[in-house]
Model the fold of this input.
Amino acid sequence: MEKYKVYTLSNFRKIPQVQTYLSADEQFDIEVVGSVLPFKVNNYVVEQLIDWEKVPNDPMFRLTFPQKEMLSKAHYKLIAEALRQEVGKVELKKIADRIRLQLNPHPAGQQEQNVPEIDGIKLTGVQHKYDQTALFFPQHGQTCHAYCTFCFRWPQFVGMDELKFAMQETELLVKYLNRHPEITDVLFTGGDPMIMTAKRLRMYIEPLLHGKVPNLRHIRIGTKALGYWPYRFLTDKDAEDVLELFKEVRDSGIHLAFMAHFNHPAELRTPAVQEAIAKIKSTGAEIRTQSPIMAGINDSAEAWKEMWQLQVKHGCIPYYMFLARDTGAQDYFAVPLIRAWEIFQKAYQGVSGICRTVRGPSMSAGPGKVQILGPASVAGEKVIVLRFIQGRNAQWVHRPFFAKYDEKAIWLDDLKPAFGEPCFFFEKEKQQAAFQSN
Ligand SMILES: *Cc1c(COP(=O)(O)O)cnc(C)c1O
Ligand code: SF4
Done:
């Protein structure tokens, strides 16, 4: 059994590699940024994924260890001074919370807009934005085996959300799904649902099986466990029970799709991850993969090409390339839309058709998932062609639209409609809806 050792702000200085490879200043930077944004890493990441000779530029290091530049200079200074003056926990938290509120903790109107109700009860652990798919946030799956520095779920890891996005039982979920026959997919998400014991996971999944939700076709599990702790499926005490549960899902006639989050080819190269992938696939589950594109972590065509090739080689299906969400340290990790598209295109051109199941680059914005199809010239005007992969309104899906060319834009909000239009088509409908409901 592989022993899981977790490191956070309180004990990261005990990591031998930190002592060997990081200066006192670099360690202090981690403490400063880690006081505002979440920080957690484990022995697998430290020993098998990070190449310490390349630190601080190693991608897996940048993925898991806080970097100085993730905070603005002003915010950095506030925390650094507070630490130097040893202001104490309570005061430090106050300062950190003030900074956190300035980092757009709830992008894309997640909290207000997507929480459904049933008989007047709010389903706080469910988000239902796109017709066919309901997201479910099990209360016990709201943490991860390590934290990504760019994570857009960061507010819940620093105690800001107090797990508002979580539910303890599936009774209400089952009721809701039965009343919404358009839903075919439940996507377990978090945090990372694979942080849960097999027993807990079973508690959440079993009520959905055996015909209790006739419209349910697919159960998806959004997880980073293959990247951060493949032993979850190999040597953890209940690894066999987890795999057994996956088999039961398949035997009950429901497709189990493992939505695996991989950010860098390094995560696919270890024997442990390759074995874990094989184990999961042997249960009949499929593994689809997704990742955001992040500066300094995977902003090169080579990284994506190798990722997709390794994934397909081991039997996974490349699914999404995302863009950095407008929250937390986005400025630091953001890759401009056009640059992301160039990387996507170059990687896509370099792989064979069976890797081209991937879609992207895509933004999960308020109106929906918007894909950058690329720059083009239309009647002499330089534009960016986009389309909805998913839309808050299903009628928007797969409909191309055009924005003025803008090399610096990093998010949908930065874009302006092309051809002198006053607003994008989906904004028009939003305005009309608001007008009608007044
Ligand atoms: C991405 C996402 C889904 C799943 O979308 P698919 O395109 O079906 O993978 C569902 N709900 C929300 C809110 C999402 O952001
Ligand atoms: S695994 Fe997912 S939820 Fe967890 S820290 Fe990384 S991005 Fe966030």
Summary: Residues 89-101 form the longest helix (13 residues). The chain has three domains: 6-100, 117-349, 365-438. The chain has a mean pLDDT of 93. The CA atoms of residues 4 and 43 lie 7 Å apart.
